[in-house]
Amino acid sequence: MKSLILLALFLTGCGSSNVSEEKAQPTELQDEVDLPFTVLHGDSNGNFMEREMIAFDNVTEYEGALSTVNKTRKPGVKAAEIDFSKYTVALLTMGKQNTGGYTIKAERVERTDRNIIVYYSERFPDPRSPVTMALTSPWTMIQFKNEKMPVIFVPLLN
Question: How does DSSP classify residue 78?
């Protein structure tokens, strides 16, 4: 009986040392840092006819994008107060779609040693589902800390 208890304690001790060693090893993910972001605007009709993923670092480009959104809106989407020395704005659009049921969403933003990565997801309507029969152009706009680095957009697979 004593040997069975000693064997159990020995096996338990061996298992826990392997786990701590694995956690102590560095991984590539430690170089990536999640950046908080805020959704500024977005919906199913942004008047963007082409698919675009753009990062803005100035108010002129930001207001230009909003003027596209506001072409068919009364009242229009109001511009947010953004300090572009502190924040970058990213615009993600799906372009013109022939029906409703499409969405685009920023899921997370990460900083690596070389880039900012905006991960996003797109949703498409099920071909068998009823959808709104109207032209749509889904879009979203986010802001995150300006790290003065190139911005890359990466789709997440659904």
Answer: P
